[in-house]
Task: inverse folding
């Protein structure tokens, strides 16, 4: 290989790596300031680059780098986006720092969310037939909290509304995507028994 | 039956011994009849597909009785399930009797089939819920960057300034969510409004319309409206009064041609 062609090759490689460096830099900055997951499609439009290898490579590299660095936070993929998320073992310190109140989902909310997550889009009567109780109250609550949304109506008598889970649902429950939920039929083995709190009568 | 030493007031969450067995359960901790039924199945240590309906139904009803004794209101869903269980039980007993009589008629379908399917489906989603409950929650078990207050402030401001197209680009879901959020906020603020009792009497309006009609045989609708235009509620009552008078055929309303004034004539 002649000296000039070597130089050209070097320039090509270094321009690709500098572009990669640039993309990673911008994504990192966006991650730091964004209040919600950074949508990769948005990044692609913002930087006027083509979707594909370079962007994927940038995200993969960032993901690896943060994992290898083993710091207080890492990069997490959520839906079509990515975000920084703190290590779970630091949760108690952060909670203390933020002086947050404990949050808990009710059993009704969790059951309803699980049914919608697995069976969406689904109507209220369908949810009620699975749970055996009225679902209007809990559906309203989940709508207000933006964990579910309405997506059209089912083409049956009465055209009932169809409910789906939202991106916020994925974000809150730390789910990469809906398909990352375990197969519903696998639960037969995952958890041996549903135990209710049993208390002895002292 | 061993009674718990501690009896809390009936209106609080209470611990009670159920049936002859020594176990205690939070009375209002069930998510519905299927939840209760599933609990009884687990307690009896049987597989759902082998559910002993007759004994489970007995326990289920005993449980409802207990709730009744404690003056806890029993949701209609529980009663519907009780009826369903009794129906299945009677179909099983009927089939046993037919078998005992050596009836040839083979009844293939298990009367428990539907309830078994429902219990199995419910159990799966209950475990799905448990899976969700075990997920680390963002905002509690781990944290991500949040919008600063300044951003929220600017966002609120920006919302006022959106272009018309963006204003229309809302879905039904957006609207409903917005409405529910407003509704919740409103409810939370617990504002009180005083509603004044309406002082306008329909009869009074009748009389005033009749009085006008006694002076002039025909009156224009627009004239009447002008005369009553002092108060919106007065106008509403006038409108209602005219409708009622027309229904009673005490006045007639005519129009000479489309878009011509409406003429009101008294008597017929």
Result:
């Amino acid at each position: 290989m002649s000296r000039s062609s070597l130089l050209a090759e070097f320039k090509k490689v270094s321009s690709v790596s500098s572009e990669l460096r640039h993309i990673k830099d911008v994504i990192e900055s966006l991650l730091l300031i964004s209040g919600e997951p950074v949508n990769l499609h948005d990044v692609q439009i913002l930087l006027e680059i083509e979707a594909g290898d370079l962007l994927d490579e940038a995200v993969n590299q960032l993901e690896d780098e943060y994992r290898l660095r083993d710091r207080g936070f890492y990069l997490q993929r959520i839906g079509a986006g990515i975000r920084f998320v703190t290590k779970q073992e630091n949760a108690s310190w952060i909670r203390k720092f933020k002086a947050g109140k404990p949050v808990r989902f009710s059993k009704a909310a969790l059951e309803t969310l699980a049914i919608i997550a697995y069976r969406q889009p689904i109507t209220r009567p369908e949810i009620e037939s699975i749970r055996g109780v009225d679902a209007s109250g809990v559906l309203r609550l989940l709508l207000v909290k933006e964990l579910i949304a309405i997506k059209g109506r089912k083409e049956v008598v009465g055209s009932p509304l169809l409910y789906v889970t939202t991106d916020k649902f994925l974000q809150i429950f730390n789910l990469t995507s809906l398909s990352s939920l375990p197969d519903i039929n696998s639960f037969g083995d995952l958890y041996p028994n549903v135990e209710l709190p049993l208390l002895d009568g002292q | 039956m061993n009674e718990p030493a501690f009896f809390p007031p009936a209106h609080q969450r209470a611990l009670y011994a159920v049936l002859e067995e020594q176990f205690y359960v939070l009375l209002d901790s069930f998510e519905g009849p299927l939840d209760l039924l599933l609990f009884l199945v687990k307690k009896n240590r049987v597989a759902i597909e082998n559910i002993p309906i007759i004994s489970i139904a007995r326990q289920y009803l005993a449980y409802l009785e207990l709730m009744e004794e404690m003056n806890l209101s029993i949701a209609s869903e529980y009663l519907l399930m009780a009826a369903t269980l009794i129906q299945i039980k009677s179909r099983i007993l009927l089939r046993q009797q037919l078998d005992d009589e050596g009836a040839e008629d083979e009844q293939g379908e298990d009367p428990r089939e539907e309830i078994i399917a429902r219990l199995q489906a419910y159990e799966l989603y209950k475990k799905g819920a448990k899976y969700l409950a075990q997920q680390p929650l963002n905002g509690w078990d781990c944290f991500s960057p949040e919008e600063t207050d300044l951003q929220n402030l600017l966002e609120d401001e920006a919302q006022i300034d959106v272009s018309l197209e963006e204003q229309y680009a809302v879905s039904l879901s957006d609207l409903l969510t917005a409405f529910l959020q407003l509704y919740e906020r409103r409810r939370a603020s617990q504002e009180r409004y005083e509603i004044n009792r309406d002082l306008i009497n329909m009869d009074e309006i009748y009389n005033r319309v009749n009085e006008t009609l006694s002076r002039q045989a025909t009156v224009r609708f627009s004239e009447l409206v002008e005369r009553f235009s002092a108060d919106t509620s007065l106008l509403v009552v006038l409108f209602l009064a005219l409708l009622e008078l027309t229904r009673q055929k005490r006045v007639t309303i005519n129009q000479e041609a489309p878009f011509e004034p409406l003429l009101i004539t008294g008597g017929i």
